[in-house]
Amino acid sequence: MMIYIDKNKLTVGDKLPNETELSKTLNVGRSTLREAVKILSFSNVLDVRHGSGTYIKNTTASTFSNTQLLDAREMLEVKAVDLIIKNGYQTEDMLQLKEILYERNTLLADGKFSAYVTADLQFHYKMIEMSHNPFLIRWYQEIQTDLSAYLSTQILHLESYSDNTLIHNELYHALLNLDRSTAIKNIKLNNINDLAVDA
Amino acid sequence: MMIYIDKNKLTVGDKLPNETELSKTLNVGRSTLREAVKILSFSNVLDVRHGSGTYIKNTTASTFSNTQLLDAREMLEVKAVDLIIKNGYQTEDMLQLKEILYERNTLLADGKFSAYVTADLQFHYKMIEMSHNPFLIRWYQEIQTDLSAYLSTQILHLESYSDNTLIHNELYHALLNLDRSTAIKNIKLNNINDLAVDA
């Protein structure tokens, strides 16, 4: 249903087709459709006006603060660490993570800040991928452009990135050794570090 | 960019317009656009073929297991609890949560299983809303239809739901008292409970 709304470029205020039509288009039964409409109306996505029809009330998150963005990132990363520790990892994946880490640290040391931001995001994304959870992967993809914009701004204000590199090295070693508490500690440190510049 | 892909109904294999055109459509500078393309190509969303153009490689998560769905749910709920405990809550919100809980428990006790699933989802969604984080709210909306389908199937196999009601009552009281560890404990118990039926 959410995908239908997106695909059909429906925005706030638009009216949904009637039940018969929608059930045909989405290829689902009427009871399933009614259930979905009920849920989305509770979630403030749809507005069911009796005798008039069903309208779009809200679509996606439009505005957010940096704290909310970093909270969402931290949530995805902590869960990814949990899943990696729980399910283990492939040597090939860990090798790639190490390569990206090396590139990230080198770019930073060389003052190639723009390429560094991309490599830094790659490192975090590789970690999310290693969770093998499609929801985490998709949601991290969704915020990557916003994270990139945020991190780029942060660099302008920072004097030294040595703490940052240390945090990433420790995070890598904690994952390698399946050491959950050290991994989580460094993810939280990284978050605090990124937010600190904001204050 | 992800929204552009969705809105324009682009699917796997489709070619993106060239840089000039895309930069005009999205109303962003070329360097921002290049950065976004780079990131999305690392994330396996886009495939940049030199001399040919940029193509869509992957869009959204298509298949997932029940464990992956419940892992994603647990992640969102744990973070919501963290944020509620950290930022506090409005009395009005907690009052609504209590009303929904009462309705949920009554429907279950009365054997109105279909309406119960909706009320149960409402309870969890209300908790997510109380986090006031737009990412958590949007992502929970995205999985609600799948969760509803999953929970409906689970009911068919369950004999007694008393543990389940107890878990939800305890979760409510823990939120009311800003008791993080009890709240998290009950969220995890609920997850285990919902998955157990699967085995």
From TrEMBL, chains A, B:
<dbReference type="GO" id="GO:0003700">
    <property type="term" value="F:DNA-binding transcription factor activity"/>
</dbReference>
<keyword id="KW-0238">DNA-binding</keyword>
<dbReference type="InterPro" id="IPR011711">
    <property type="entry name" value="GntR_C"/>
</dbReference>
<dbReference type="Pfam" id="PF00392">
    <property type="entry name" value="GntR"/>
</dbReference>
<keyword id="KW-0804">Transcription</keyword>
<dbReference type="InterPro" id="IPR036388">
    <property type="entry name" value="WH-like_DNA-bd_sf"/>
</dbReference>
<dbReference type="InterPro" id="IPR036390">
    <property type="entry name" value="WH_DNA-bd_sf"/>
</dbReference>
<dbReference type="GO" id="GO:0003677">
    <property type="term" value="F:DNA binding"/>
</dbReference>
<protein>
    <recommendedName>
        <fullName>HTH gntR-type domain-containing protein</fullName>
    </recommendedName>
</protein>
<dbReference type="Pfam" id="PF07729">
    <property type="entry name" value="FCD"/>
</dbReference>
<keyword id="KW-0805">Transcription regulation</keyword>
<dbReference type="InterPro" id="IPR008920">
    <property type="entry name" value="TF_FadR/GntR_C"/>
</dbReference>
<dbReference type="InterPro" id="IPR000524">
    <property type="entry name" value="Tscrpt_reg_HTH_GntR"/>
</dbReference>
<feature type="domain" description="HTH gntR-type">
    <location>
        <begin position="1"/>
        <end position="59"/>
    </location>
</feature>
